[in-house]
Amino acid sequence: MKKKELDQLGVSAFCESMGMMVRSGIQTDEAITLLRQGEHQTGPLGEALDQMASMVGEGRTLKEAAEATGIFPEYALKMIEAGESTGRLEDVLFQLSDYYRDQKTIADRIRGAVIYPASMIAMIIVVLAVLLVMVLPTFTSVYERLTGSLSVSSYRYINMSYAFCRIALAVMVILAIAMTAGLLLWNSGKRKQVEEFLWKFPASASILEKMAMFRFTSALEMYLASGEMQDNAVLDSIAMTDSPRVEEKLKRCAARMEEGIGFAQAAYDEELYEPIYGRMLLPGERSGHMESVLKRLTSLLKESCMGQVDQVVNTVEPLLSGILMVTIAMTLLSVMLPLIGMMGSIG
């Protein structure tokens, strides 16, 4: 049975701790032993560190030891192997720590962007159900005893309130079912189907594309930092996008590079990045500072992605709040206006 992989924060913490010890001149086997002695290193990671310490002590590489545990993601293993082979393990470990921390930050932001609207939708459903089951029937019963059938009286707009509440409730229930189905599909390993559906909407498609480009750019930066050739680094980084649509653009870029064009020019021609970002690569490549430019570009993509998520939340929040307020206002008017009319006729 395959072991469950460490979460992103766990991988980030491990890489950062190992990086600090390697920087301090501690041997890899000693560093793993010290990590194992930490009071918080229990459970699967603690067991994995025991196994890794034993294997590294027998002369195996850090990558081989980490791979044998079965709890580290494939990308981290590839980067650790590249770092060991080029003598830049320390740099790679710190970059992996930043990469997985950023991934966790973006994932948490997106999770929050889903949870808040879901909570609002649930609240609206509850309010609408109370209005339809308790509030409106009570007032309807009172007015029918006073005026007869509402459908032929001057108070028939109460029926309009019923209709509006029913329509709003149906829409909210459909949204709730769609979000629940999407969550179940995502958690059951059918993430591709969910993403394919989200690609149909401009706002979510833009976020997915930026996330894919963030993963690609971050991976490319680390591969180049580990000493890999640019052409190979681009090809290895394509698999990190986890998005077939973005991979197609990147493969066209790789094909241009096979013709002798540099990555910066190929990326600019294929419009991999927005023009303002794409122009950053050209002088960076010509001046030999591609790694620093990619690092900056990764940070900008992360900020842009989270900014778009916040923008979607800021748009959905007032929309749902507006639906709730309009529904309550219409219901109040529909039940209060007849009462006001009666009081006026009595006076």
Description of the molecule:
- The chain is mainly alpha-helical.
- It folds into two domains: 8-72, no CATH class; 98-347, no CATH class.
- The protein has 14 helices and no strands.
- The chain has helices at 8-23, 28-36, 43-57, 62-69, 74-86, 89-147, 157-187, 191-198, 202-225, 230-238, 244-258, 263-269, 275-287, 290-346.
- Helix 2 (28-36) runs antiparallel to helix 3 (43-57), helix 6 runs antiparallel to helix 9 (202-225) and helix 7 (157-187) runs antiparallel to helix 14.
- The radius of gyration is 29 Å and the shape is elongated.
Largest sheet: none
- The number of strands is 0
What structural class do the secondary elements suggest? mainly alpha
Shape verdict: elongated
Query: Quick check: average pLDDT?
Result: 79
Give the percentage of residues in beta strands: under 5%
SSE sequence, one letter per element: HHHHHHHHHHHHHH
As a whole number of angstroms, the C-alpha radius of gyration is 29 Å
Number of helices: 14
Q: What fraction, in percent, of the residue positions are helical?
A: over 70%
Describe the protein's topology:
Blueprint: H1 8-23, H2 28-36, H3 43-57, H4 62-69, H5 74-86, H6 89-147, H7 157-187, H8 191-198, H9 202-225, H10 230-238, H11 244-258, H12 263-269, H13 275-287, H14 290-346
Helix pairs in contact: 1-2, 1-6, 2-3, 3-4, 4-5, 5-6, 6-7, 6-9, 6-14, 7-8, 7-14, 9-10, 9-14, 10-11, 11-12, 12-13, 13-14
